[in-house]
Amino acid sequence: MQVYKFGGASIKNIEGIKNVTQIIQSFGAKNLLVVVSAMDKTTDRLQELAFAHINGNETRHEILESIKDFHFEIISKLFTDTKNPIYNDVANTFVEIEWLLEEDAEDAPDYLYDQIVSIGELVSSKIIAAFLNQQGTFCVWQDARNYIQTDNNYREANVQWEKTTNEIQKHLPSYLEQGIVITQGFIGNTSENFTSTLGREGSDYSAAIFSAALDAEKMTIWKDVPGVLNADPKWFDETEKIPQLSYRDAIELTYYGATVIHPKTIKPIQNKGIPLYVRSFIHPAELGTEISSEATTPPVPSFIFKVNQVLLSISPKDFSFIIEENLSHIFAIFHQNKVKVNTMLNSAISFSVSIDNDELKIENLIKDLSADFKVKYNKDMELVTIRYYNQQTIDRVTENKKVWLEVKSRNTCQMVMKNL
Ligand code: ASP
Ligand code: MG
């Protein structure tokens, strides 16, 4: 069996939905599990709705109405028979949010967020399943919350692997024998039976969990790009598709900030040796990128940009060396403030790090560090990571820039820089 994952961009309108159903139908009539995200930017809109509710803002009713309108507009075009049960099914799903919005937002914000934001995937998967069935392709809609079991760390829930694997293996194979199974990405279920989410863009991860538990032959993520590119077209003119990547390189690239795949996706499929394909839903006949244990094609230099970086330089006030004791104290302060270090370098009496510019967090971080250290900082920096670098690629990205910090390992070069 195989697993397909479709993101929000692939199902943003009726043409998209029709295209996706064709890709599914060309696979065959059974032994395919399809994981879908919310349509288009629905999760962003639901997130606005959740924040409006949490802050007691009356705009929440308008936001909900516009989300409903968007979905019912699509439904009315796909299902001309207004007696089709999908109309009621989707309306009832939205009623659950309406009930929640009627009450004061007294529960924990992260809990409320997950109850609201999870609706996007429920609705999109119902629409796609109903549309496939209307077209005569038998498919079974399954609630991912019956399978993906998590703790109650809402908004970034941790998967309970054993329970999850058991549930998947117990029930899904018999459905897969009967037809196509459609389920949701991103959402899970806590042991108290509340809905949780796995973190933004988490649908790739859901697909990897299902793939691993079902020992899928392959997993495919369908995207609006031809595959994994060697740079984000947002920052780079000449990008090229990487035909093959090792799991190791894929994990390194996503760790450094390549957004093409969710970083948690690789581990479960690597552990089971399942190949992952990233392919274009616009050109479904093309091969895309294959991610597996070994790439046979030579590595392509890849570039990952992070803008809006702050470069901090931290030195002990008493001129003592930066040694293990100081470092563990510094890292404890970063950890307490939930600040992630993007790159770092130390000298005898100074320790430099590049971090995302999150004003709220940085203010507290600097305050805490300043008790024992002298802290200097520079804003508006860019961090570029080059995997499989050479002098030519370094020259290319540093043109008209001043490099403030450079860290090199055998395969990876990171530079923190600013416009000249
Ligand atoms: N719909 C969710 C999000 O936008 C999950 C996903 O798309 O992967 O974050
Ligand atoms: Mg998405």
What can you see in these coordinates?
The protein is an alpha/beta fold and 420 residues long. It has two domains: 2-216, 3-Layer(aba) Sandwich (Carbamate kinase), CATH 3.40.1160.10; 302-419, VC0802-like. Helix content is 40%, strand content 25%. It contains 13 helices and 17 strands. The chain has helices spanning 14-27, 42-54, 60-78, 86-102, 109-117, 119-134, 161-178, 203-214, 247-256, 266-271, 324-336, 359-370, 391-398; strands at 2-6, 32-36, 139-141, 149-150, 180-184, 187-190, 195-197, 218-223, 244-246, 276-280, 289-292, 302-316, 341-346, 351-356, 373-387, 401-408, 412-419. The chain has an eight-stranded mixed sheet, with helices on both faces. Strand 6 and strand 7 (195-197) form a beta hairpin. Helix 3 runs antiparallel to helix 4 (86-102). The longest helix has 19 residues, at 60-78. The mean pLDDT is 95. The protein binds aspartic acid and magnesium ion. Aspartic acid (ASP) is lined by residues 7-8, 37-38, 43, 120, 185-186, 200-203.
Question: Which compounds are bound in this model?
Answer: aspartic acid, magnesium ion
Large-scale geometry: globular
Number of strands: 17
| Highest-level CATH class of the largest domain | Alpha Beta
List the uncertain runs. none
CATH architecture of the largest domain: 3-Layer(aba) Sandwich
Largest sheet: 8 strands, mixed
Using only C-alpha atoms, the radius of gyration works out to 24 Å
What is the N-to-C succession of helices and strands?
Answer: EHEHHHHHEEHEEEHEEHHEEEHEEHEHEE
Structural class: alpha/beta
Number of domains: 2
Between the first and last Cα atoms, what is the distance in angstroms? 54 Å
CATH topology of the largest domain: Carbamate kinase
Give the mean pLDDT: 95
Strand order across the biggest sheet? Answer: 3-5-2-1-8-10-11-9
CATH superfamily of the largest domain: Acetylglutamate kinase-like
The helix content is 25-40%
Strand content: 15-25%
Count of helical regions: 13
> Assembly type of the shown chains?
single chain
Organism: Pedobacter helvus
EC number: 2.7.2.4
Pfam family, one: AA_kinase
Enzyme class: transferase
